[in-house]
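thought: fold this chain, then report.
action: predict
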Amino acid sequence: MTNGVSRFEVNPAAGMTPSTFTPMGAFKTEDKTEINHFYLNADNETKLAGVWECAPCREEIAAYPVNEMMTVVSGSVTVTEKGREPETFTAGDSFFIAKGTECVWEITETLRKFYFIAA
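observation:
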């Protein structure tokens, strides 16, 4: 893990690279763009932080794989936890999903977010 202070930029100077967190079958449009920039990748990937962007998609998640805190920079995502009403998050909203949560994750407008993950 790095020490000190790190600035997270919406458009990282080092750029964004393709990522594959989202299964191809989950994308809802011809746009299958998914890009990421890690600001932190520590302790054998058990702690991750960065900025991530993804085109519209929908995933039914039986058990969310990590604890994740997020802040939406742009776009929109609706998360529906099993047995609860859908919650929509847009620019400026921050939220947390606990590891093991059963939910539907649906990006309705290309999403860019800051995230911190603890596995």
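thought: worth noting. The chain has a mean pLDDT of 94.
final: tokens above.
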